[in-house]
Each structure stands twice: as structure tokens, then as C-alpha cells.
Design a protein that fits this description.
Structural class: alpha/beta
Largest sheet: 8 strands, mixed
Organism: Leisingera caerulea
Shape: globular
EC number: 2.7.7.33
Number of domains: 1
Enzyme class: transferase
Helix content: 25-40%
Oligomer: single chain
Number of helices: 8
InterPro entries: G1P_cyt_trans, G1P_cyt_trans-like, NTP_transferase_dom, Nucleotide-diphossugar_trans
CATH superfamily: Spore Coat Polysaccharide Biosynthesis Protein SpsA, Chain A
Strand content: 25-35%
CATH class: Alpha Beta
GO molecular function: glucose-1-phosphate cytidylyltransferase activity
């Protein structure tokens, strides 16, 4: 099964980083967040990716070209036509389609442009800036069970501020940025049938608007509720929170380490 990742947005809310690189290439723990996302899928055996490029897409192409050829130990023999000799493989066995989908194309349009590379089969889809410990095996089983065209992972976002519990005026518990207890939002990590492409009319369509709204109207959109960890890196503050978690060793999305 192929995994589609949207990595073409401009990331204007993270301008401190995205002025020089696309948001999926912003690093957590020394590796791009796109790498983290792909490692989540790879942990469950999904190693065939189609990445929708847009803003600064060449940056992502260069990264994967170098990652595929220079990772691990090498010998450089300048007298050979192919001077780089690799001694081992220190990366996942990924196949990555890097597809140009336009600088101004919206999310639905990017999904539509990936259609020729995804084939006529069930596929997974996510954004290039969100990480989670969602169990992809259970997500797919849920999708297969209900038989509808689309499954969306519903999550409770992290609270923006610390949460306190009281007895009178005494604070009995303090949690720094826990998951909220109320409300569900789009956490991406979709499973989709190819008929979903019929709900996308063109480049200037937001996948989160008409396509999902119409799938819901037609009774074809189901939600997989995920109570575990989920976070999106929309701002510099979000990046710092993820980096702090990584540095502390508390890396709930790093399922490949468990």
C-alpha cells in the first residue's frame, strides 16, 4: 500500500525556518520532520511513498538523493567512473516518488495530482508536518471493517496552556500541555479508497473543505478516534515543544524505537 504525504505548503506560520527550507524539512532531533513521519509508516511496513512537492521542492529532492546515496559508511575512489562505494545501508528500504504539484496548488489539488502515482488501490495519506503514535494496523483494520471510502484519524489536540486541578484554592495536580479532554479535530493519517479522487475538482480545492464535507454528506467518511499522542508543527513554538520532547527522551511518536 502506498503512502501519500503532502509536503508542498509554504509554512508561513513557521517563517523563521521556512524562509530557507520547506516545512517538512525542519528538523527535530537532527532529522527532518518528514523523516519522522516516514519512519512511523515504515515501522508498520509501509515503505512506498509518494510525496507531493511545491514550495522549495528541490530542497526535498536533494535531501533524498543524498540520503539514499551517502547514508552510512562509504569509500570515495576518485579513479573510478562511479567514485562512491557504499559499505552498508543505514536507512529504511524506502521507495520515494517526489512529485512536483505546483507552488500554489491547494491540498486537494496536490492529492489529485498524485493520483497517477497511487494507482487504483487503497492508499494512506497524511500531512508533512504532523506526528503521532497512532497504530496504523488498527487504523487500517477499522477502515476495512466499515467499508466506506474514507477514514480520518480524529485526535484531541494538546492544550495550549498547562492544566490545573483544584481542591478549593489548592492546586492538587498540574499538567503541562496535556491532551484536551473535549473536542475532536482532523489529525490527518487518512486511509482512502481511489474513488475519493472523484470528490476533488482541481488544483484550487482544499481537501479539508469540499471533498471531506461531501464525503461526510454522502455517508462515506468515518472517524478513527485516537486518544494517544498527536502533534502538528505549525509554529516555532510547536517545533520547540517537539524538540524538547525529543531531547528529554520522551518521544511518543518514535514508535520505531520501541
Amino acid at each position: 500500500m502506498k503512502v501519500a504525504i503532502l509536503a508542498g505548503g509554504k509554512g508561513t506560520r513557521l517563517a523563521e525556518e521556512t524562509s530557507v527550507r520547506p516545512k517538512p524539512m525542519v528538523e527535530i532531533g537532527g532529522m527532518p520532520i518528514l523523516w519522522h513521519i516516514m519512519m512511523i509508516y515504515s515501522h508498520y511496513g509501509y515503505n512506498d511513498f509518494s510525496v507531493a512537492l511545491g514550495y522549495k521542492g528541490d530542497y526535498i529532492k536533494r535531501y533524498f538523493a543524498e540520503y539514499g546515496t551517502l547514508a552510512g559508511s562509504i569509500t570515495v575512489n576518485m579513479g573510478r567512473p562511479d567514485p562512491v562505494v557504499r559499505h552498508d545501508q543505514e536507512h529504511a528500504p524506502w521507495t520515494v516518488d517526489l512529485i512536483e504539484t505546483g507552488d500554489e496548488t491547494l491540498t486537494g489539488g496536490r492529492v489529485k495530482r498524485l493520483q497517477p502515482h497511487l494507482g487504483n488501490e487503497t492508499f494512506m495519506l497524511t500531512w508533512g508536518d504532523g506526528v503521532s503514535d497512532v497504530n496504523l494496523d488498527k487504523l487500517l483494520a477499522f477502515h476495512r471493517y466499515h467499508g466506506k471510502l474514507a477514514t480520518i484519524t480524529a485526535v484531541r489536540p494538546p492544550a495550549r496552556y498547562g492544566h490545573m486541578r483544584f481542591e478549593g484554592d489548592q492546586v492538587t495536580a498540574f499538567e503541562e500541555k496535556p491532551q484536551t479532554a473535549e473536542g475532536w479535530i482532523n489529525g490527518a493519517f487518512f486511509v482512502l479508497e481511489p474513488q475519493v479522487f472523484d470528490y476533488i475538482e482541481g488544483d484550487m480545492v482544499m481537501f479539508e473543505h469540499a471533498p471531506l464535507e461531501n464525503l461526510a454528506r454522502d455517508g462515506q467518511l468515518m472517524a478513527y478516534r485516537h486518544d494517544g499522542f498527536w502533534a502538528a508543527m505549525d509554529t516555532l513554538r510547536d517545533k520547540h515543544i517537539l524538540q524538547k520532547l525529543w531531547n528529554s527522551g520522551q518521544r511518543p511518536w518514535a514508535v520505531w524505537e520501541k
